[in-house]
Amino acid sequence: MNNELLQAFAYMFKILLVQPLLYWSLFFIIYNHFERNKREQLQFRYPYTSLFVHFKESVGIALLLGFFLSCITIGIGTVFTYEIIAILTIVTFILTILFRHVAFSVIYPVTLTFLLFYKLVPINSVAYYDITAKTFTGIILIGSILLIFEGNLIRRVDYSACHPNLALSKRGKWFVYFRLKRIQIIPTLLLVPDGWITPINEIWPHFSVGADSYSLIIFPFITGFHLAMKSDLLKKQTNRYARYVILLGIATAFISILSYHAPKLTFVALYLALIGRIVIHLTFFLKERKSAPRFIEQSDIIKVAAVRPQSLAEQLTIKPGDIILRINDQPVKTVEEFDQILAKENKISSLTLKNEHKTTRTISSTFTCRDRYQLGIIVATKPYQSY
Questions:
Q1: Residue-wise pLDDT tens digits, 6-51
Q2: What is the pTM of this model?
Q3: List of domains in the chain
Q4: Which parts of the chain are beta strand (E)?
Q5: CA atoms of 225 and 285, how far apart (whole Å)
Q6: Strands 323-327, 302-307: pairing kind
Q7: How far apart (Å, rounded) are the C-alpha atoms in residues 22 and 363?
């Protein structure tokens, strides 16, 4: 009995490993990590974050969400046919190739899969044999819950999840903007028509409803977000963005539940989710495009735009927004002066800073470093190396 149970779980895990979306998302995470590291080494001399650092932070929550979604799909009897899973996989591939991280918001592939299946597959075809009204309603409900999860991912973002970048303004000044990216994999048990996979003895879960038989597979739903931000305070912007995404998810989920009794409401939920998510993203994008950069090159102050995680600057409790006033009691006003003092001083014993609330503090700590890059601060100035 125990051997059969282990064999069943091993087979279920094997099915997860043959899902193309699992490898596609891992490829995206790894590819973007090395692409980002290359850019950061050119701009800031050192890479900013390590591989999978942000992915690991929400793994536990993703697994709990996967269990919750599994209970919903099985509990309400949402059947995912081979055609639906195939379309969802292909649509995700195409969207992420064309639009990169923007398309990882799961509501895009979910709603487009619904529309493509409904429009392209004839209602009298064999593909509709296992489709019920609960199938489409359940798909939108799952998308809504994942949208709420996406909003919570955005709300949990802090400066450690932001990747600084340097860009040149139209006036010829360098400024720092931040890319906020995250991808998460949510493994979920889905109800599929029996026969697509073969149950293992009597241990492998399968269900019979009338003359129809169903089984389970693990499917990796992929969700995430991508934002570019150059203005205002991080938490103020991301909290507002996250709030709109969460409210959209709640509204869509509510309409999806109502559609069990009024199937036409499924389309209301679908278009609300799709159009609403696009509007939220475009509104944020256009607002940011018109906004002035918060961290822009200045000739009379040294303002910290970001602090590299696990760096000396982080140990010294230097924060984004701090202005460096003095180093070893020597006043500094330009990045060049700061670099020269770091290069010639054997030991640094004090740093005087002023935060965004105009409070001045002095950090008394003896350390050595060759330049601001080794210290771990990022300032709006020309890159370490040109492209």
A1: 555 565 555 555 678 878 888 887 888 888 888 888 898 888 877 6
A2: 0.82
A3: 2-290 (no CATH), 298-379 (2.30.42.10)
A4: 162-168, 174-193, 206-209, 212-229, 295-296, 302-307, 323-327, 330-331, 348-354, 360-367, 377-379
A5: 13
A6: antiparallel
A7: 46
